Amino acid sequence: MIERQIHLSSGGGAALQGYDGLLRFGYTKNRGIYALRVEADGEWQGMTLRAFWHLPDGNAAPSTLVVDGLVEVPALITAVPGEGRITFEGTDGTRTLTSADIKYNVAMNSGTMGDIPEPPVPAWQQLVALVEQAKDEAWQAGEDARQSAAKANEAYENTIGAKDSAVTEIRKAETDALNNVEASAGPAASAAADAAAAGAKEKTEKAIQEVKDNVVKEVKDAAAGAVARAAQSATDAASSAAEAKKTAQDIQGYYDGVQDLVTDTLRDYTGGYYRSYDLTIPAAGWKEMAKSVGRYWYSCDVAIDGCDSSYVPMGTLTLDTAGEVEKANLATVLQTVEGGVRFYAAIPPKVNIRAFVTLFAKGTASIQQASAEEVQRMLDEIFNG
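Now predict its structure.
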C-alpha cells in the first residue's frame, strides 16, 4: 500500500510531505492502493481523528477513522475522477479541532467495467466496531484468567493431598523399622545396652574426680602466688610512699622559691613590655560617638582580659584588609580602656580587620610589695600554662 504523509499543526494547518500541494491517488477505480499517514502534534495530541472526504462534485462521502496514525483511502474516493477535498477533525469529548482543506486528485481514464463501489463504513461505525472488539477481547481474557485460576487451585489442592500422603507413609515406615529392630535384637540387645551404661558411668566418675583434683591444685597455686605478690606489693608501697614524701617536699621548696622570686620581681618592676595579642576588630562592633575625636566619628572596643587604661598600647594591621582600612580612614592611634583596647575610624569598615597589639606597662619610681593575688596569678601562669 502506498502511503502519503500529512502533518497537522496546532493552528489547523495541514502540510503535505514531499508533494506539490496536491495528493494524487492515481487513476479511476483504484481500490486498496493508497493510505494517508497522519502526523499530528500540539493540540491534536490525545484526540480521536476522523477524515472527512468531499467528492469533486461537492457532495460529502462518509468519514473514516484514523487508527494508529493511518487511514486508508476509500474505494468510493478513487472511483470518482476529479479534484476533491479532505478535512480532518480531532476531538477528545470536550475540545474539537479542525484542519484546513487538503486537495486530492484522481486522474480520469477510459474506465473499466463495473459499478461504483459501496461507500466505506462511516467513522463512527468503525469506532463502535473497535470498542466492541476490545470488549470481546477483554471478556475472553477474563474468562481465560478464571479458568487458569481454577486449574491452579486444583493443582494446589492436589499438592497438599500428596504431601499429607507422603508424611503418613514416612511415619508408618519409621514405626515398622523400629518394631523390626526390637523384634530381631531381643535379650542380646538389652544386655549390650546394660554393659554400655555401666562403662559410661565408670568413665564419668573418673572424669569428675580428675576435674576436682585439678581445681584443688590450681586454687592452692593461686593462693601461694597471691601471698607472694602481696608481700612484694607491700614492700613496693613503702618505698613509693617514701619517694612520694621526698618529691612533695622538693616541690614545696621549689614553689616557695618561685614565690619569693615572683615577689621580688614584681616589687622591683618599673615598667616595660607586658604582653602581645592577635585581635579581630569586628565589622559589627563599630559605634557612632556622640562627639568626634578629631575627624574620627566611630569607635570599636575589642576586649582584652585584665587590660585597663594604665597600659600603653602599640598596634599594627595586616595587609589583607589594607584597602578597607584606607576606605574607612582607620586611625593610626589606639587607646586602652577598662577591659580592652579602643580603635577609631572616620567611617565604619564593612569587614573584620585583624590587628596585632602589644601592651606596655607604665614605669613607677616607687618600690611596692607584690600582692598575694599578683603572686598567685603569676604562679598559675607558670605551673598551669
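The longest strand covers residues 82-91.
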